[in-house]
Amino acid sequence: MVQRVLVVDDDRTVSDVVCRYLEHAGYQVAHVGDGAAALAAVAAERPHLVVLDLMLPVLDGLEVCRRLRARPDGVPIIMLTARGDEADRILGLQLGADDYLGKPFSPRELVLRVGSVLRRAGEPAPAPPEVLVDGGLEVETGPRVARLHGRDLTLTLREFDLLAHLMRHPARAFRRAELLERVWGWSFGDQSTVTVHVRRLREKVETDPANPRRIVTVWGVGYRYEPADA
């Protein structure tokens, strides 16, 4: 089955290059240039993934991301941003973007990330499914559900995979590059992606995100999951 990718960007030069590279990689690609058109295209075409620019006319990328995440189909989103402010990237991930790239970016890297996100979205659950439990935190990998003290957590695709990976290996320190490879499936890339996802996870699973007790920083190394009963 040919996978469909919707590119949403009002910069025609950028979108032409992105579309050409994605088509060369074997994807069926559509393009729109504003946020309202993006929502209409997703509803009509049901793409498998959306490449979404942050700066758009009519509706900006953050609002489009927010509205797409309100849909039940959960289409994966890779956000593009020309802004260097980390707060924009964090907000995009908070709203549910599965990944982001800052402009200027390599079209080849974007193609690799599109493939990685689509593989993750389409992977079957492990057999048998796992149930990971620790101190009120429960993760079920089959239905991809996470709960804290009985309350459902709203996690993005990457946040869920990162949390499950860390819980599978309690008390083990992972370098950011190692997590990028094991969770994202990338042998290269911006390691700050891991930092942002860890920060977002802490806000969802820690009582005090500024002083984390579950996902702790190992200075000079990376991160470690500390079991509640340790």
UniProtKB/TrEMBL annotation:
Gene Ontology BP term (one): regulation of DNA-templated transcription
DNA-binding region: 129-227
Domain Response regulatory: 4-118
Gene Ontology molecular functions: phosphorelay response regulator activity; transcription cis-regulatory region binding
Entry-linked InterPro entries: CheY-like_superfamily (IPR011006), OmpR/PhoB-type_DNA-bd (IPR001867), Sig_transdc_resp-reg_C-effctor (IPR016032), Sig_transdc_resp-reg_receiver (IPR001789), WalR-like (IPR039420), WH-like_DNA-bd_sf (IPR036388)
Domain of life: Bacteria
UniProt entry keywords in alphabetical sequence: DNA-binding, Phosphoprotein, Transcription, Transcription regulation, Two-component regulatory system
PROSITE patterns: OMPR_PHOB (PS51755), RESPONSE_REGULATORY (PS50110)
Ranges for domain OmpR/PhoB-type: 129-227
Any one GO cellular component localisation term in the record: cytosol
Modified residues annotated as 4-aspartylphosphate in this record: 53
PANTHER family: DNA-BINDING DUAL TRANSCRIPTIONAL REGULATOR OMPR (PTHR48111:SF4), REGULATOR OF RPOS (PTHR48111)
Identification of the protein by name: DNA-binding response regulator
